[in-house]
Write a structure and sequence with these properties.
Elements: E1 2-10, H1 14-32, E2 35-40, H2 45-51, H3 57-64, E3 68-73, H4 88-98, E4 103-109, H5 122-125, E5 129-135, E6 147-148, E7 153-154, H6 161-176, E8 181-186, H7 192-204, E9 212-217, H8 218-227, E10 234-237, H9 239-250, E11 260-264, E12 270-274, H10 291-303, H11 308-323, E13 326-327, E14 337-338, H12 341-354
Parallel strand pairs: 1-2, 1-3, 3-12, 5-10, 8-9, 8-10, 13-14
Antiparallel strand pairs: 4-5, 4-11, 6-7, 11-12
Helix pairs in contact: 1-10, 1-12, 6-7, 8-9, 10-11, 11-12
The structure holds 1,4-dihydronicotinamide adenine dinucleotide (NAI) and magnesium ion (MG).
1,4-dihydronicotinamide adenine dinucleotide binds near residues 17, 76, 256, 257 and 328.
């Protein structure tokens, strides 16, 4: 298979973790006979410094000419006092909007070698295996009008039937590849948008008779994520609820450095990035945990290219290295051997070559 991948390293540890993911992709290409053309381009603070624009046109052009995007992270104190249009995060918001990447997918799965770093009881944490599907390009963060006066402020929550249908379909499709259960999270007891959301889920489920569906109010879902996260398979929800619940879910498996994500649209095109940020406190020190970026590359192979065997091989290699006791500083603990980012990647590549 021949594919072109846009690589947008970004800021802080972004370049270190994307380099790591690229090494793993190159190893996969060699081993399975694929050709991945990797095209680097600037985003975030680095792009502001070079081009006065957090998402320059040449970066959009590179992404347009690619089959998928791999992104590191953006942001850092250097740009914190910039005006809104010159802030690194603007690059990320703009790229999602520009490519209409409406479905944010975050798998949250227990890592057997790391159960001791979960805040939950080991017997609860060890069975966590869910995917949160969050609507990413509409809802309260984008609704108009949005305005401020001295005495009041307005945000607007709008969803169209079509926007709900496409994200709900995406969740049903993902559930089909998993345990076949969808939990739709809303606030239908008070919000009109949530009532429409629920109606659409009820309509769409008719096309997926094999999938079990449950509705849950967001407050109760927030509790259940802590008390019984094993009950979830695929969770589908609107933008703001998904933002909050996915961050809540991200801590239950123990490390931010382990969690990948995808932002995709229906034709398979997508942007893949670790959940964590640019970690300025450890940037440039060869200390960052590259697992989330590497697992994001695995998600790309699976969701955008349909390369399920290759994706599974990457996941297995990362878990294998952790099981052998190797880890980066963020996962240090008893019986663990802390290694640099480079060394960790070398171990993952060796593990891949051994399979
Ligand atoms: P962060 O995720 O960058 O870091 C939080 C803590 O986790 C830090 O102590 C960091 O060292 C550690 N950490 C994160 N990823 C790690 C990894 N791979 N390996 C080892 N340790 C890791 O979040 P924070 O500090 O709130 O934000 C830092 C910058 O990143 C800010 O400018 C923020 O806006 C930006 N950010 C960017 C995101 C993105 O590009 N998608 C997402 C979240 C934050
Ligand atoms: Mg968030």
């Amino acid at each position: 298979m021949k594919k072109t991948i846009a690589v947008l390293p970004g800021d802080g540890i972004g370049p270190e973790v994307t380099d790591a993911a690229v090494k793993v992709l190159q190893s996969i290409a060699m081993r399975y006979g694929h050709t991945f053309h990797l095209k680097h381009a600037a985003i975030g603070g680095t792009a502001v410094d070079q081009f006065d624009n957090p998402l320059p046109q040449q970066t959009i052009d590179v992404c347009d000419a690619s089959d998928a995007i791999l992104l590191g992270a953006v942001g850092g104190t250097k740009w914190d006092s910039n005006p809104a249009h010159l802030r690194p995060e603007k690059g990320l918001l703009n790229i999602r909007k520009h490519f209409d990447l409406f479905a944010n997918i975050r798998p949250v799965k227990a890592v057997p070698a790391l159960l001791d770093s979960s805040p939950l009881k080991e017997e609860v944490a060890k069975e966590v295996d869910m995917v949160i599907v969050r609507e990413l390009t509409s809802g309260l963060y984008f609704g108009e009008p949005k305005r401020r006066s001295e005495k009041s402020a307005v945000d607007t929550l709008v969803y169209t039937r079509e926007e709900i249908e496409r994200i709900v379909n995406q969740a049903f499709e993902i559930a089909r590849t998993r345990r076949g259960k969808v939990t739709s999270v809303d606030k239908a007891n008070v919000l009109e948008t949530s009532k429409l959301w629920r109606e659409v889920v009820e309509e769409r489920r008719k096309a997926y008779p094999d999938i079990e569906v449950e509705h849950m109010l967001v407050d109760s879902a927030a509790m259940k994520l802590i008390t019984d996260p094993r009950a979830f398979d695929v969770v589908v929800t609107e933008n703001m609820f998904g933002d909050i619940l996915s961050d809540e879910a991200s801590v239950i498996t123990g490390s931010l450095g382990m969690l990948p994500s995808a932002s995709i649209r229906s034709d398979g095109f997508g942007l893949y990035e670790p959940v964590h940020g640019s970690a300025p406190d450890i940037a440039g020190q060869n200390k960052a945990n590259p697992s989330a970026a590497i697992l994001s590359a695995a998600m790309m192979l699976k969701h955008s290219f349909g390369l399920h065997t290759e994706a599974a091989a990457i996941e297995k290699a990362v878990m294998g290295v952790l099981e052998d006791g190797y880890c980066t500083g963020d996962l240090a603990g008893e019986g663990k051997r802390v290694v640099s980012t480079d060394r960790f990647v070398t171990k993952v590549v060796e593990e891949l070559e051994r399979e």
